Amino acid sequence: MSKTLRYRMFKVGAMPQALRDEIDREQVIFFDEGVAVTVRRKGTAPGFSGSATGKFSGAFAITDRRIVATISNTTMVDAAYNSHELGEKPATISVKEDGLHVHVDASVNPRCTGEIVMHFDAEVTPPQLDQTPQRELKFNFAPELVPKIFGVPG
After folding, report:
1. How far, in Å, CA of 72 to CA of 58, rounded?
2. Residues 92, 135: contact at Cβ < 8 Å?
3. Most buried by CB count within 10 Å: which residue of 26, 34, 44, 98?
């Protein structure tokens, strides 16, 4: 798939180097950066009510230990396969041939309601899917990111 224009021009959507260094020490099954990310949000946050869709540039990786995904320099997903301590409202990930799908209950932040859906658009090959330890997974989404995604200060 082609890289986003922001990535080609300014490297926006590159995985932050510190996170890249971490995953390079793991067995990397899939890695891509500069991918198109569609974020759909619907609900309420302080100063926001309604729905919106945004297009961003990001990166994601699947390793033998976890799935990570970033938008610009913000880590949106860092989900270990063996995570057993899930909060009341865990987010979900699914890895499919068309990329990474993330669903978040916005009320993980008590000041917000609604849902956030992110799609990291990339071609994940059948062999890569076969090597992925878990194609569907739950993880704890950082509550402080919810207002930011809705476009309001946290």
Report:
1. 6
2. no
3. 34
User: How many residues in total does the chain contain?
Assistant: 154
Can you tell me the distance from the alpha carbon of 80 to that of 61, in angstroms, rounded to the nearest whole number?
Answer: 12
- 4-58 pLDDT, tens digit each: 999 999 999 999 999 999 999 999 999 999 999 999 999 999 999 999 999 999 9
Burial of residue 39 (number of CB atoms within 10 Å: 0-12, 13-18, 19+) = buried
Which long-range contacts link 107-110 to residues 24+ away (Cβ below 8 Å)?
108/141, 108/143, 108/146, 109/45, 109/143, 109/144, 109/146, 109/147, 110/143
The residues that bridge with 137 in the sheet, in sequence order, are 93
Distance CA 116, CA 149 (A): 8
Residue 121: half-sphere exposure toward Cβ, Cα within 13 Å? 12
| Nearest residue to 91 via CA among 117, 71, 66 | 117
Residues of the chain with pLDDT > 70, as a percent, come to 99
